[in-house]
Amino acid sequence: MKQWELIDSTSVPDTDGFMRLMRRGDELVIRVDGRELMSNRMHGSEDALADLACDQLEKRSEHEQRDYKILIGGMGIGFTLAATLKRVTQNAKVVVAELVPAVIDWNRGILGKTANYPIKDPRVSIHIGDVANLIRKPPEPWDAVLLDVDNGPVGLTRSDNDWLYSQKGLAAAFAALEPTGVLGVWSAAPNDAFVRRVERAGFNVKPFRVRARGNKGGRRHIIWICTRKQKNPYLRD
User: Fold this and answer.
1) Distance (Å, rounded) from C-alpha 235 to C-alpha 194?
2) pTM here?
């Protein structure tokens, strides 16, 4: 059996951890401190995050073709971005917020071919930094915010990510969205406490159990699709 080869490594901002890009034959994985975060062989749930959110956007806009403004938290190997670009118009705007600069470099290089270089699409803008900054202070309201950050509401790599899934973070996401906007959240596992926080923040929430390898099976992940239902009780006039 072929051995894993280290391609590159980088530190994770604000932590003591290291992120490593590894290769074995045609397989590419990103690991943090030995834990696998993503792989080019398992991206069914990353695709589903984009598709389920876009399905909901189209439903809420009554299937009218619109130039959506979409924020994606976490570049990964580019699969959520690639799936999003397949669903939006040529004048749409998709912003990817990625905390680790090396991940963007990898997607411009060795990882890019895997998802057909979505990062090069003219509709895409890259924000190097915390996605929370673009939720707290959006340049304009988002039609959708798609979060594939860390491991979902129970993080593995960075405690600062917890804010995104907290009551304050969800309130900020509510405020950052258009009235017909959609919040999509990827998670490695169910989390009832998180669902209760989403509902308290003023969202309707629907869980979808999806396979890591799509139609090929694999581990089950959770996608929550959240839509605004009322004024957020945590916001002031």
Assistant:
1) 19
2) 0.91
Helix axes 167-176, 192-200, angle to 10 degrees: 50
Domain range annotation of the chain: 42-228
Distance in angstroms (rounded) separating the CA atoms of residues 126 and 28 = 22
Which CATH number does the domain 42-228 belong to among 3.40.50.150, 3.30.750.24, 3.40.50.1010, 3.50.50.60?
A: 3.40.50.150
Query: Can you give the pLDDT of all 237 residues of the chain as single tens digits?
Result: 789 999 999 998 878 889 999 999 999 999 988 888 889 988 899 999 999 999 999 998 776 778 999 999 999 999 999 999 999 999 999 999 999 999 999 999 999 999 999 999 999 999 999 999 999 999 999 999 999 987 788 755 555 678 999 999 999 999 999 999 999 999 989 999 999 999 999 999 999 999 766 666 667 899 999 999 866 555 543
